[in-house]
Design brief:
With 295 residues, the protein is mostly helical. The protein has a single domain (13-277), classed as Up-down Bundle (Rhopdopsin 7-helix transmembrane proteins), CATH 1.20.1070. It is built from 9 helices and 2 strands. It has helices at residues 13-43, 50-78, 84-119, 125-144, 171-206, 215-236, 244-254, 257-266, 270-281; strands at residues 153-155, 162-164. It has a two-stranded antiparallel sheet with strand order 1-2. A hairpin with a 6-residue loop joins strand 1 and strand 2 (162-164). Helix 1 packs across helix 9 (270-281) and helix 2 (50-78) packs antiparallel against helix 8. The longest helix is centred in the middle third of the chain and has 36 residues, at 84-119. It starts with 12 loop residues before the first helix and ends in a 14-residue tail after the last helix.
Amino acid sequence: MVSSYPLPEGFSDFDVFSLGSCLLVEGLLGFFLNAVTVVAFLKMRELRTPSNFLVFSLALADMGISMNATIAAFSSFLRYWPYGSDGCQTHGFQGFVTALASIHFVAAIAWDRYHQYCTRTKLQWSSAITLAVFIWLFCAFWSAMPLIGWGEYDYEPLRTCCTLDYSKGDRNYVSYLIPMAIFNMVIQVFVVMSSYQSIAEKFKKTGNPRFNPSTPLKAMLLCWGPYGILAFYAAVENANLVSPKLRMMAPILAKTCPTINVFLYALGNENYRGGIWQFLTGEKIEAPQIENKSK
């Protein structure tokens, strides 16, 4: 069925099938879990709070990442990209905007949790909606730049999915990468790290930890750290010197974030988990009234 299409350089039949299978599992599992999170928020009135709206928005972004992974999986089984150059640009833009939005919403949830636990300030609907709209517009701006020439979208090493092209490492790439990374990764990592450090200190004083404050940052770095390292390595060295298989590990790890985020921010939230359970089974679980209380 696929024998007429040559294998991507550096990959065997087994490699292509294995990576495609990973993408398919990540895509379908992430989409299903986040779809349940989204529908539960829309259906269960008890879940519709400003803080949970940020979790809902994160789930929407992660559904987009999962859709991107599923398309890449389908192309991997075909062993070629069937949607042409325009499809590659669309796939790259869609994947980039949802990935950036996911990172931003993780930081927004950390900021909200800091205020809940450390300043006892509740998020208002006006602030939550304004923040969500700003995040989507801001991410769309940075994701649209490669479409008009600042940066570029091209194929991943497997040549069955598209993302920001780091293979050239030229001045155009570097001039885009640095400000994009500062505004869409470095600041967000700082917000997550500082917020959960403050929460950890608060938990030490009260002696009543609600969750492990180090887990969100570790999960964020696990999913997006390899992509960041590869992107900055490409700014100083020829990224093509890194084996194609190793370079494909970055998108594979990144596309685990939709599933990980569900367990951290939806199922790990007692209020949200209870709402999902009630939505799926009709049985109500009495949960504490503190929002975003996680294991």
